[in-house]
Design goal:
The complex is a heterodimer of chains A (364) and B (153). Chain A is built from 15 helices and ten strands. Chain A is globular, with a radius of gyration of 20 Å. Chain A has helices at 45-49, 58-62, 69-84, 90-118, 122-143, 165-188, 191-197, 205-210, 216-219, 227-230, 251-275, 328-333, 336-340, 345-355, 359-363; strands spanning 4-9, 12-13, 18-19, 21-27, 30-37, 152-153, 156-157, 295-302, 307-314, 322-326. Chain A has 364 residues and is α+β, with helices and mostly antiparallel strands. Chain B is 22% helix and 30% strand. Chain B has three helices and seven strands, in the order αββαββββαβ. Chain B has helices at 3-13, 37-47, 102-113; strands at 21-24, 27-33, 51-59, 63-72, 77-86, 91-93, 116-118. Chain B has a five-stranded mixed beta sheet with strand order 1-2-5-4-3. A two-stranded parallel ribbon of chain B has the order 6-7. The longest helix of chain B is centred in the C-terminal third of the chain and has 12 residues, at 102-113. Chain B is globular. The chains are: A alpha+beta (364), B alpha/beta (153). The A-B interface holds A 38-39, 42, 44, 46-47, 51-53, 82, 209-212, 225, 230-231, 289, 296-300, 307, 309, 311, 313, 318, 321-322, 324, 326, 330-331, 334, 363-364 and B 25, 27, 50-54, 56, 58-59, 67, 69, 73, 76, 78, 80, 99-101, 103-105, 108, 112, 126-129, 136-137, 148-149, 153.
C-alpha cells in the first residue's frame, strides 16, 4: 500500500456533470473513500417559494431539474391541484403526458450521451444530442423556450398545441426507436465502452431500496418500481408499456435501460396522440389568485431521474406556507460513496455519469 | 395488505393512536409523539414499508412538525408519519439505522431547521457551508440579504 493521497475534484469540473465537489481519498489510483460535497448550486428555492404566489412558483420549479423542467412543473402543479381541489381537463392531461415523455427522451439523451463522453465514445454523445435537439425544438415550437418551459400550470397547461405540432411529434417518434438501435450498437456494442461500464459501480437491489434510490438508478439494479405503473397517476393506466429492468446494477445496466425507456416513451406518446381529443386545456373558472384551504398535500411523479415529489403546506394565504421538493437526484447521489469504493479514479467519473445527477435538483 | 388492513393492524398495535390515523388522498397519515417515533417506524418497516421517500419538517411557529413519507412496494401504499418537537429543544431519534436513505435527508433537515437527530452517524450541514449562522427555513430566520417581494396582490 502506498501513502494515501487526498484529491479534490470540482466544484467546477467537466467530469462531475455539474457543480459538485468530490473529496477523494486515493491509494495509488484506487478510490478508498469518495465524499460528495454538495450545495454549490443551492439557491434556496424552497425558501423563495414561501415568498411568492402559487403561480409565481412555477418558473422556480423550472430551475430545479433544468434538464427536465416539465417534470418539476408537473409535480408541483399536481400538488397544487390536490391542495386546491382543481380538476384538470382530459386534453391537458394527455398533453402533459406527451410533453413529459418527450422530456424523458431529452433528459435520457443527455444521460446516455454523457456516459458516452465519459467512456471515450464521443460519437455517441453527438448522436444522442442530435435526438435531444429534435425534442428541444419541438418544445421551442410549443412554448417558445428551449430549456425552462414554464408550460405546465396549475389547472392545465399554458397554451394549446400549435398547428402541425402533432405531425412533427409523430415523425420524431417514428424515427426515434431506430436511432436508439443505432445508438445501442454504437455505444453499448463498443468494446471499449463495454469494458469501462460492465461490472463498474455495482449497486445491489436491496441497497438501492434502502438508500431511497429510484428511477433508472434503482431499476438498473432490478428494482421493479415505476410510479407510472405502480402508483398510476394522470392517464397512465390507459397506456400499454413495459418497464425495462437491469440485472447487475452496474453502470452498463443503468445507462442502457435509459435507452430502452426512450423506446417505451415513444410507445406511450404514440398511444397518447391516438387518444388525444379536442377540448379545453385549462380548468374553467380558476381564480387569478389561488389561495387553497389550509392543509397539506403531497404528490409524486416518475421523472427521468426517479420519484419526484412535492409536499405543499398551505395556511390559507395566497402563498405556500412550506414547499418541499423530494428530489430523486439527491437520493440517487447519496449512494456514490458506496459505488466508488475500490474502483479507480477514472471509473469514478463513469459512476457519477451513470447516476445522471442534475445539480439544480440535488442542491435546490 | 391494503391501507384499511394497515389501519386495523395499527389500531390493534397502538390502540391509543387509532383516532390519529387517517387516510388522505389514498395515503395513510399517522400522527405520533416524538418519543415513540422510532418504535413506530421500526414496526412500519417490519410491516413492509421498505422505502423511506422523504424526511422533512414544517415550522408551525409553535413547534416543528417532522414529516416522514414511507412507501411500501408490496402494498403499493404510502404513509405519512408526523411528529412534533418543541422549538426550544428540537430533538428526535434518527431513523438512519432503519433506512440509510435518512442519512442525507436528516442532514438536510438539520441544516435548514436545526433539528437534532440523536443517533445520526454524521450530523453535519449538507447544503449550506459549515460556518453558516442560523437555520434558513425557520420562519423567524433573519438575514439582511433577504429581499421581500412587494405585496402586489
Amino acid at each position: 500500500m502506498t501513502e494515501e493521497t487526498i484529491v479534490n475534484i470540482g466544484p467546477s469540473h467537466p467530469s462531475t456533470h455539474g457543480v459538485c465537489r468530490i473529496v477523494v481519498t486515493l491509494d495509488g489510483e484506487v478510490v478508498v473513500k469518495a465524499e460528495p460535497i454538495i450545495g454549490h448550486l443551492h439557491r434556496g428555492i424552497e425558501k423563495m417559494a414561501e415568498n411568492r404566489t402559487y403561480l409565481q412558483v412555477v418558473p422556480l420549479t423550472d430551475r430545479l431539474d433544468y434538464v427536465g423542467s416539465m417534470y418539476a412543473n408537473w409535480a408541483y402543479c399536481r400538488a397544487v391541484e390536490r391542495l386546491a381541489g382543481i380538476r384538470v381537463p382530459e386534453r391537458a392531461e394527455y398533453i402533459r403526458v406527451i410533453v413529459c415523455e418527450l422530456q424523458r427522451i431529452a433528459s435520457h439523451m443527455m444521460g446516455i450521451g454523457s456516459t458516452g463522453a465519459d467512456t471515450g465514445a464521443f460519437t455517441a454523445f453527438m448522436y444522442a444530442f442530435a435526438q435531444r435537439d429534435h425534442v428541444v425544438e419541438l418544445f421551442e415550437a410549443l412554448c417558445g423556450s428551449r430549456l425552462t418551459y414554464n408550460y405546465v400550470r396549475p389547472g392545465g397547461v399554458s397554451m394549446d398545441l400549435p398547428d402541425g405540432w402533432v405531425e412533427q411529434v409523430r415523425s420524431f417518434v417514428a424515427q426515434h426507436p431506430a436511432a436508439m438501435m443505432e445508438l445501442d450498437t454504437l455505444l453499448f456494442g463498443n468494446v471499449i465502452a463495454r469494458a469501462r461500464l460492465k461490472g463498474v459501480g455495482v449497486l445491489p437491489a436491496d441497497t438501492a431500496v434502502a438508500w431511497g434510490t429510484s428511477g433508472p438508478t434503482a431499476r438498473g439494479s432490478g428494482v421493479n418500481w415505476d410510479l407510472r405503473r405502480d402508483d398510476p397517476y394522470s392517464v397512465y393506466p390507459r397506456f400499454d408499456f413495459e418497464v425495462p429492468l437491469g440485472e447487475n446494477g452496474d453502470c452498463y445496466d443503468r445507462a442502457r435501460i435509459r435507452l430502452w425507456e426512450c423506446v417505451e416513451s415513444c410507445k406511450i406518446i404514440d398511444q397518447a396522440l391516438d387518444q388525444l381529443e379536442p377540448g379545453p386545456v385549462k380548468a374553467e373558472g380558476l381564480p387569478r389568485l389561488l389561495a387553497p384551504r389550509p392543509g397539506d398535500a403531497y404528490d409524486h411523479i416518475e421523472s427521468a431521474r426517479g420519484s419526484l415529489g412535492v409536499y405543499l403546506v398551505s395556511d390559507g394565504s395566497p402563498r405556500p406556507y412550506r414547499m418541499k421538493v423530494r428530489s430523486p437526484a439527491f437520493c440517487n447521489l447519496s449512494v456514490l460513496p458506496l459505488l466508488a469504493e475500490g474502483h479507480t479514479l477514472s471509473d469514478l467519473v463513469v459512476i457519477i455519469g451513470s447516476l445522471d445527477p442534475v445539480f439544480g435538483e440535488v442542491d435546490r | 395488505m391494503n391501507i384499511n388492513e394497515l389501519r386495523e393492524h395499527l389500531c390493534s398495535q397502538y390502540p391509543d393512536l387509532c383516532p390519529l390515523f387517517s387516510v388522505e388522498f389514498g395515503d395513510g397519515v399517522l400522527v405520533i409523539d416524538a418519543d415513540r417515533l422510532h418504535e413506530a417506524a421500526t414496526d412500519l418497516r417490519d410491516l413492509g414499508f421498505d422505502r423511506l421517500g422523504m424526511v422533512t419538517a414544517v415550522d408551525t411557529r409553535d413547534e416543528f412538525e417532522l414529516v416522514y413519507r414511507l412507501q411500501s412496494r408490496q402494498m403499493h401504499a404510502g404513509i405519512f408519519v408526523k411528529a412534533r418537537v418543541p422549538r426550544d429543544e428540537p430533538t428526535i431519534a434518527s431513523v438512519t439505522d432503519l433506512w440509510p436513505a435518512a442519512n442525507w435527508q436528516e442532514r438536510e433537515v438539520f441544516d435548514m431547521f436545526g433539528i437534532v437527530f440523536t443517533g445520526h452517524p454524521d450530523l453535519r450541514r449538507i447544503l449550506l457551508t459549515d460556518d453558516w449562522v442560523g437555520y434558513p427555513l425557520r420562519k423567524d430566520y433573519q438575514d439582511e440579504r433577504i429581499i421581500r417581494r412587494p405585496d402586489y396582490i
